[in-house]
Amino acid sequence: MKIAFYQPKNSILRKYMEGYYFMTPDDSHQPFHYLTFPNNFFILSVAIGSQIMTEDNQIIISHSAESEIIADFLARYTRPIEILYKDPVPEITIYFKPSGINHFINKAYLLFGQKTAINFNPFPDFYETMKGILELNDRTLQIELLEEYWLSKFEQKDLQLIEDILLDIESDLKISDIASKHTISRQHLNTLFTKTVGKPCSEYRKIYRFRSTIEKKKDTKKLTQLTYDNLFYDQSHMIKDFKDLTKVSPQSFFKKIDVDKKNIWLYIYRLYIFTIFAVVIRLLS
């Protein structure tokens, strides 16, 4: 399976999308197996000629005799999810930034409540357009048509308050202080945030710290320094959060990844596993 990651060329899309990647079957026809760890993105995947089965913290993708489009999304998860491609299939996966999906889909809060969904079809022309893009052999044209399509669905929403709250949370202001700053109650803050971002403020912050720690690991080798650089109370706090989100300690986690790669969130996301947590990183082409 070949994976190619791209950041949007269009400036509007770059503001609301972290990026997207294309998965293309190669000649090996080998199963593709990995763990995905919690993040704060809204993840939309579209594949052709596949079928999906979901179990507790596991998603299994296999070939379908029908060359039809299937789409699914992940809006919220706090434990590792095991992904198994039994058969390689052509796929596009898009990562929308926190709150970004609201600018493309009306009433996105209805999606957040589902956490994950198969047979996702947000627009009347969605399946037809995605199928046409996936069937192309010209990557440049695929990118052009994909970005053109999502730009056609873009509608600017006034989410300035949420964007300000996101910055406050990432700056580690106390939730009560954030509510006071914006002259709203703490309860209303959490309700508004969950409706727009898809999770409570505290959960977002926990995952943000986790991801921030991974980003900074390439420059800081000592876990003690990482603890304070990423606003954990102490090292036991960081260990607890890592175990909650990855099921292993920070020491074990960092032994299994290469933090010197670009797009580190994608490398963390794409882990091959042949035995749980017996993990090696495979370079992306």
TrEMBL record:
<keyword id="KW-0812">Transmembrane</keyword>
<feature type="domain" description="HTH araC/xylS-type">
    <location>
        <begin position="159"/>
        <end position="256"/>
    </location>
</feature>
<keyword id="KW-0472">Membrane</keyword>
<dbReference type="GO" id="GO:0043565">
    <property type="term" value="F:sequence-specific DNA binding"/>
</dbReference>
<dbReference type="InterPro" id="IPR018060">
    <property type="entry name" value="HTH_AraC"/>
</dbReference>
<dbReference type="GO" id="GO:0003700">
    <property type="term" value="F:DNA-binding transcription factor activity"/>
</dbReference>
<keyword id="KW-0238">DNA-binding</keyword>
<protein>
    <submittedName>
        <fullName>AraC-like DNA-binding protein</fullName>
    </submittedName>
</protein>
<dbReference type="Pfam" id="PF12833">
    <property type="entry name" value="HTH_18"/>
</dbReference>
<feature type="transmembrane region" description="Helical">
    <location>
        <begin position="264"/>
        <end position="284"/>
    </location>
</feature>
<keyword id="KW-1133">Transmembrane helix</keyword>
